[in-house]
Specification:
Layout (H helix, E strand, L loop, with lengths): L25 E3 L4 E2 H19 L4 E5 L9 E3 L10 E4 L10 E4 L2 H9 L2 E6 L12 E8 L5 H17 L5 E4 L5 E6 L6 H18 L4 E2 L11 E4 L26 E2 L18 H7 L17
Parallel strand pairs: 11-12
Antiparallel strand pairs: 1-2, 3-4, 3-7, 5-6, 8-10, 8-12, 9-10, 9-13
Helix pairs in contact: 1-2
Bound molecules: adenosine-5'-triphosphate (ATP) and manganese (II) ion (2 copies).
One manganese (II) ion binds next to strand 8.
Protein name: DNA ligase D polymerase domain-containing protein
Pfam family, one: LigD_Prim-Pol
Organism: Paracoccus siganidrum
Length: about 300
């Protein structure tokens, strides 16, 4: 249940309006991060994470007892969900069950209350379901791939996106790899965006078959990097910038400046614990993300 309270504290502004049950439940037991700790993290990063999760269909990785217990991906609204979580209807699936969105920090804390440890948005908004406003190229290193090679792959994706007139931004996945993300003015449809992302991946695999693959089926991943373009189809998701990961270490997917890529910052370097310090100490490397959007050229 959700209760309204008046807020006086300025450090944790609106988040106190949503009551958390079991605030001391350990979501990341090794790291000592509780449900309340996750809510505090989200309140701290709210201005940064909001553009990537507000007003978009979301898939949630829910872990009711934390990362050591059962986990499930949830795409649809459910009975009894917080009233701060907004059901949204896919205009192409009018008969289907509503999907999940949030509009504000209360909604995000509602997700925490629902044990959503990871947040995975669509690459389009619920204002314009059929025109993606970003491309996500997901770099998945196979076994035995050096971090330096993953960085090179990201730089090559960047080059190819920029050659196509797009701006490219990089973030850690919080898992094993990097994500290169290009903001789009939402003009092209999913088919064109998918085709483009696929062409980038296939181009890299064709030019450097010893380094890159573009299909999971090609199962020759050992020593190679999968340029996973499949995040770029209607209904697909990728983990949000700033979302934590439900894995040991409580890493988050952290936006980086291109110059920061190097041996010191691995894919799980930034965490729920150290992210707020980074955000306070460093400017926003993705500050220009939205203003850099351009339409995908045919
Ligand atoms: P890593 O660096 O470990 O690869 P990742 O977030 O990129 O981290 P992937 O396995 O490459 O993980 O998956 C990419 C994205 O695909 C995920 O972020 C998620 O949005 C989506 N995804 C993966 N598994 C599922 C699933 N079971 N159900 C729905 N979406 C999924
Ligand atoms: Mn990945
Ligand atoms: Mn992947």
């Amino acid at each position: 249940m959700v209760a309204r309270e008046t807020t006086t504290a300025t450090s944790r502004p609106q988040r106190r309006r949503v009551t958390l049950t079991h605030p001391d439940r350990l979501y990341w037991p090794e790291e000592g991060i509780t449900k309340e700790g996750l809510a505090d993290y989200h309140a701290a990063v709210w201005p940064r994470i909001a553009p990537f999760i507000v007003g978009r269909p979301l898939a949630l990785l829910r872990c009711p007892t934390g990362i050591t217990g059962p986990a499930f991906f949830q795409k649809h609204a459910w009975k009894g969900m917080s009233r701060h979580i907004v059901p949204v209807h896919d205009p192409r699936d009018k008969q289907g069950a509503p999907l999940i969105a949030i509009e504000d920090l209360d909604g995000l804390i509602g997700l925490v209350q629902s044990a959503a440890l990871e947040i995975h948005p669509w690459g389009a908004t619920a204002a314009d379901w059929d025109h993606p406003d970003m491309i996500t190229m997901d770099l998945d290193p196979g076994e035995g791939v050096d971090w330096a090679a993953v960085i090179e792959a990201a730089q090559e994706v960047r080059r190819r996106l920029e050659d196509a007139g797009l701006a490219a931004f990089v973030k850690t996945s919080g898992g094993k790899g990097l994500h290169v993300v290009a903001p789009l003015k939402p003009r092209a449809g999913w088919a064109a965006v998918r085709r483009f992302a696929r062409a980038v991946a296939e181009g890299m695999a064709a030019d450097s078959p010893d380094r890159y693959v573009s299909t999971i089926a090609k199962a020759k991943r050992r020593g190679r990097i999968l340029i996973d373009w499949l995040r770029n189809q209607r209904g697909a998701t990728a983990v949000a910038a700033y979302s934590p990961r439900a894995r040991p270490g409580a890493a988050v997917s952290m936006p980086l400046a291109w110059e920061e890529l190097g041996p010191e910052i691995g894919p799980a370097h930034f965490t729920v614990a150290n992210a707020p310090t980074r955000l306070a100490a460093t400017g926003d490397p993705w500050q220009d993300f939205r203003s850099a959007e351009v339409p995908l050229r045919a």
